[in-house]
Every structure is written in structure tokens, then in C-alpha cells.
Amino acid sequence: MNYTVNLWDTHPDDGEDTCAIGADFATEAEARACVANLRGTFPRSYKDSPWVQLDGPGVHEVTRNPDAVAREPEGDDEWRREQAMQAGMAFGCEGYNEAMGYD
User: Fold this and answer.
1) Same domain for 8 and 36
2) Which of 37, 47, 58, 82 is 20 to 30 A from 73, alpha carbon to alpha carbon?
3) Which residues of the chain have pLDDT under 70?
């Protein structure tokens, strides 16, 4: 039986398929060592994903990645761009720039 450590962009139990990367381990101890040192197993991407999942026989743990770089919520940025596009259609370039905060 294997243990797996996965890095997720959204909470793994949310049902979205956002697993970014993972690694398999023969023992629970090896998997826990990976969780304790994500940089050693995932040197290029360990800061990209805010959720860490440890899964295996009798174990299902989801924790926050303390090294993850905080991101701005995408929804807020998308909504701001949508508002700016609407302002641009109504008031031209000046309306777009004002909505985006460029003025």
C-alpha cells in the first residue's frame, strides 16, 4: 500500500480537480517527512498550492501549506475587469481607465 502527498490549488474535498502535483511513498513515515519538507520533494512548485493532502491506508489529512504564496482571489479581479469593460462600452477609454484605476 502506498501513501500519497498531493498539493492542491483548492481544498481537495471541494470536488474540484485542482491537484497540481503529487508523489507516492512506501511508508507513512516517508510521506509525513515529505509534508514536513515540501521543498525537498517539490522544489519548483511547493509555494504555488495552498493545500497539502496526505492520503493512504487509514490516513486522510488535509492541511494548509504554510509556505504557499498568498494569491488575490480571481473572482474579484475578474469582476473588476468586467465592470471596466462595461464602463468602457458606455464611456469609452476614459470610463475603462477610471474603472481600472488608471486615472
Assistant:
1) yes
2) 37
3) 1, 71-76, 103
Parent domain of 101: 72-103
Phi–psi pair at 28, nearest 5 degrees: -65, -35
Which pLDDT belongs to residue 11? 92
| Shared-domain flag, residues 55 and 87 | no
Q: Give the contacts of 70 (CB within 8 A, at least 6 positions apart).
A: none
**Does residue 56 sit in the same domain as residue 81?**
no
Instruction: Answer for the pair 36, 54: CB distance below 8 angstroms, yes or no.
Output: no
* Ordered DSSP codes for 4-66: EEEEESS-GGG----EEEEEEESSHHHHHHHHHTHHHH-TTTTTT-SEEEEEETTEEEEEE-T
Residues 49 and 89 in one domain: no
Element (H, E) at 73: none
Same domain, 48 and 77: no
Q: What is the pLDDT of residue 16?
A: 87
